[in-house]
From TrEMBL:
Belongs to the LysR transcriptional regulatory family. The gene is hcaR. This is Hca operon transcriptional activator. Transmembrane segments: none annotated. It comes from the Bacteria. SUPFAM superfamilies: Periplasmic binding protein-like II (SSF53850), Winged helix' DNA-binding domain (SSF46785). It comes from Budvicia aquatica.
């Protein structure tokens, strides 16, 4: 039994209309019906009967209404009290992220700031190696890292990422060539490579993919960051391999081709150091646990 189910029960009991109750709860009528049925199943008896005049409370439903109403009121009062307490929480947290996690990191930081406005949040873009070092030394309290993760860190897997080939849409007609065509001829195409020293972890991921597929690219240019690399691809200078999340910063004229096979995919996790205590970090993790369904679908 969940609190939202009790809230749905009380709201429907007050209006005796599925349409009106669903509107008040900001959900669809099927979603409301599902919640009521789940509550009835957990309680072991029907709460409502449906007739020509809409929903009607059963004797069992009538016997539970006042108690349920009191619980909902108490829950609302508790939520208001918790909100008042949250506004008194203050502190600082540093969170590391990379290109794959910039969207979810920003959304989670905004949610934390909304609930705890006195908390200072520092978002830092850095490599996986610096992430790990920062978490081990408490320079960072949270970090989004490519798996596998350092054994001293705990983590929650949040995202799945994969490699894509980016090409100039005018020079290369994507519908005519699939990823196998490009992969087999990558040694003949002009290839722009991310500078390994700037992104060592991601460069190793690409190297593993190329080695697994026996591909030796024809490197004609290096780029120190993904934005520069994408800009060069957009000019038609050559093709490149980036993570799929890079499409959010790609300029016009760039198409992507998903790559598959060994080392084309990896997981991104939110990591922390369990040996170091940090109250704001723990609040953040609790918030994530309660709302994880909202973030797992972020592309």
């Amino acid at each position: 039994m969940e609190l939202r189910q009790l809230h749905a029960f009380v709201t429907l009991a007050d209006s005796l209309s599925y349409r009106e109750a669903a509107t008040k709860l900001f959900i669809t009528q099927p979603a409301l019906t599902k919640q009521i049925k789940a509550l009835e199943q957990s309680l072991g008896a029907p709460l409502f009967s449906r007739g020509r005049q809409g929903a009607q409370l059963t004797p069992f439903g009538k016997s539970l209404y006042q108690k349920a109403q009191a619980l909902v009121i108490q829950a609302n009062e508790f939520k208001q009290y918790a909100g008042n307490q949250a506004r008194q929480v203050s502190g600082h947290i540093a969170i590391g992220y990379g290109l794959s996690s910039i969207r979810i990191a920003s959304m989670l930081a905004a949610q934390l700031k909304k609930q705890y406005p006195s908390v200072t949040i520092n978002l830092e873009d850095m490599t996986s190696a610096k992430h790990t070092e920062g978490l081990l030394t408490n320079r960072l309290q949270l970090g989004f890292l490519r798996q596998p993760i350092h054994p001293e860190l705990k983590f929650i897997t949040l995202l799945e990422e994969n490699l894509v080939l980016v090409v100039n849409s005018q020079r290369y007609s994507v519908p005519e060539l699939n990823q196998a065509d490009y992969a087999h001829h990558l040694d003949k195409l002009s290839y722009i490579q991310i500078t390994p020293e700037c992104c060592p972890g991601f460069s190793r991921q690409i190297d593993k993919y190329l080695a697994a597929h026996d591909i030796v690219p024809n490197v004609i240019q290096y780029a120190s960051d993904t934005q520069t690399l994408l800009a060069l691809v957009a000019t038609g200078m050559g093709v490149a391999i980036v993570q799929r999340s890079a499409i959010h910063i790609a300029p016009e004229g760039v198409d992507i081709i998903d790559l598959t096979g060994p080392h084309a995919n990896w997981s991104v996790a939110l990591c922390w150091n369990p040996k170091i205590s940090h109250s704001i970090r723990d609040i953040f993790l609790n918030m994530l646990e309660n709302q994880s369904d909202n973030y797992m679908a972020i592309p």
